[in-house]
Design goal:
heterodimer; A: alpha+beta
Chain lengths: 385, 158
């Protein structure tokens, strides 16, 4: 070792000198402390005379301190977990297919194809008919045409009156020939006022039975849930908007414990409705609506009249006009304008037969009733003995 | 993969790219390349393997590497030391050569040995030292210094 050092060219003072250039190359090793002692001393000697070298050394030391602090940067567990988590199938697929290297046009084409396919699926699946119906349907235009209560008992006049008071008129009463009371026009609320002024046909004494299950286009029935057994069965709300899609509902198929709602379209112009010859009514007439109209003679009318009203309520009938069921048309005549489920027609006839001989005529009428619901106008007179 | 390896990969890409979204994506990609079997086969260390996969990751995105446009926030799941100024590093990341940047991160920030870096990078140890010296000098030159010659954030050097 000593001989090797002796072989080296040394300065006049016998010391091993390194040039500034060489020191500059060694300054990093010097800063890191990896030089041997002799070279370290040589660099130090050069360093003491060179400001450039000092500056370079300072830079390196500052950088080392700076990066030492930078290395203390902390990461959240979420970041670490994200990196550690296994790849998804999509990412693997993209990686395997070298999606990034695909031509831009091909990428955009594929992406646009996916977007278009998604749009087509959405447009196909979306219930546009319902959305349109929702937008066009009137708010709160609900008309209950008939209500069947399972556990309702006959002879509950208070209940009867409550029901009658709570229910608004669904149809205008026919104006009796000698009516003393002016029936208010209720067309503004329901749009269903087509005042009839026709008299009862003189020759209409034949008894008719309703056509159960007769299809009446233009009507849609919605069935919703009701709570528990014994709940009311409401039949009402006829919607003439989406009518064509409706299928017939037989009255004897009416579900018990369900609420059936039918909606009526909101009239756009009241005056047109009052005229009774609107376009809608013309169409209805063309389709063939019916009304059961009749009369019967009863002995002891003041006693039998309320019982008839109760029976009508019991079988699910609802008053259809402005006046209450069993309205005193004259001192010897009561007037019933109501709707009932078609299936209950026979039951009603059987009940009425106890008091007399009902004579009902099935007439054509521009108003089309919902499937399973019929409208009747019955006048009862005190029998003349 | 251990958490320390994942942290090293994340820190490397955060500092090399200065872009959170790309750093996360590149870190995940690099992590997927991390192969434990390769360690035993090639008889290299964990650090060398990290160098290999991070360099491969940088190589993959080198054409799209837009340096000098940092896109970082302090709420991105990483927290710098209290009072640390990232400005000089941004300057360095923008102005330094890619090799210098990478080797400074591997050696000075991640504290990998020159031998591991050389093995993972596929160069000689001398090259690593040379690049590191150049990088550190460049970074040191970017650090703010007062008139007495000391940088402001490290305090006054007497």
């Amino acid at each position: 070792m000593e001989t090797e050092i002796e072989d080296l060219r040394l300065s006049k003072k016998g010391k091993r000198e390194v040039s500034t250039f060489l020191s500059l190359e060694l300054i990093f090793e010097y800063a890191m402390g990896t030089l041997d002692l002799e070279r370290q001393q040589a660099v130090e000697r050069t360093l003491s005379n060179s400001k450039d070298l000092q500056s370079e050394l300072k830079k390196i030391r500052l950088a080392i301190e700076y990066t030492d602090r930078l290395s203390k940067t902390q990461f959240n567990n979420t970041v670490i977990q994200e990196i550690n988590s296994p790849e998804t199938y999509l990412s693997i697929l993209l990686k395997k297919s070298n999606f990034e290297k695909w031509p831009v046009g091909l990428k955009w084409g594929l992406e646009s194809l996916i977007v278009v396919a998604g749009l087509v699926v959405i447009l196909t699946i979306a219930p546009w008919e319902k959305a349109l119906r929702w937008g066009m349907s009137p708010n709160g235009k609900e008309v209950i045409l008939a209500e069947v209560t399972r556990d309702q008992k006959i002879g509950d006049p208070l209940k009867l009156k409550e029901i009658e008071k709570s229910e608004p008129a669904q149809f205008s009463d026919e104006l009796p020939k000698k009516a003393e009371v002016a029936v208010q026009n209720n067309s503004g609320t329901t749009g269903a006022t087509l005042a009839e002024t026709k008299a009862l046909p003189s020759g209409s004494t034949n008894e008719f039975k309703p056509d159960i299950g007769t299809a009446k286009p233009g009507v849609v029935a919605k069935v919703g849930e009701a709570s528990g057994a014994g709940s009311n069965v409401k039949v009402g709300r006829a919607t003439t908007i989406a009518a064509q899609n409706a299928g017939p509902i037989k009255a004897d198929q009416l579900p018990v414990g369900k609420v059936i709602k039918l909606e009526t379209t909101k009239p756009s112009n009241n005056s047109a409705l009052v005229q009774g010859k609107s376009e809608a009514s013309d169409k209805a007439e063309a389709r063939g609506g019916f009304l059961y109209r009749g009369q019967m003679s009863i002995t002891n009318l003041p006693v039998a009249g309320p019982k008839i009203s109760e029976k009508i309520i019991e079988i699910g009938g609802r008053k259809a006009g402005d006046v209450e069921l069993g309205w005193q048309k004259s001192p010897t005549s009561l007037y019933y304008h109501f709707t009932i489920p078609e299936a209950k027609y026979d039951e009603l006839m059987a009940f009425l037969a106890q008091y007399g001989k009902p004579k009902l005529v099935k007439e054509k009428h521009p108003r089309v009733m919902p499937d399973g619901i019929i409208r009747l106008i019955l006048t009862t007179d005190e029998s003349k003995k | 993969m251990t958490d320390s390896v994942a942290r090293s990969i994340a820190l490397f890409f955060y500092l090399a790219l200065m872009d959170e979204a790309r750093a996360k994506a590149s870190s995940a990609d690099a992590a997927s390349l991390y192969d434990i079997n390769h360690l035993s086969k090639s008889n290299c260390t964990e650090a060398a393997e990290v160098v290999r996969i991070t360099y491969a990751g940088i190589e993959r995105i080198s054409s799209k590497l837009g340096r000098g446009r940092p896109n970082l926030s302090t709420h991105a799941g990483w927290s710098l030391p209290q009072g640390f100024d990232l400005g000089p590093w941004r300057e360095f990341q923008k102005g330094a050569m890619l090799d210098e940047l990478l080797v400074v991160i591997w050696s000075s920030v991640l504290d990998f040995s020159n031998e591991d870096i050389a093995k993972g990078w596929g160069v000689s140890v001398g090259t690593v030292k040379y690049r590191l010296a150049l990088g550190l000098r460049k970074l040191g030159g970017m650090l703010p210094q007062n008139k007495h010659g000391s940088n402001t954030y490290l305090g006054v050097v007497k």
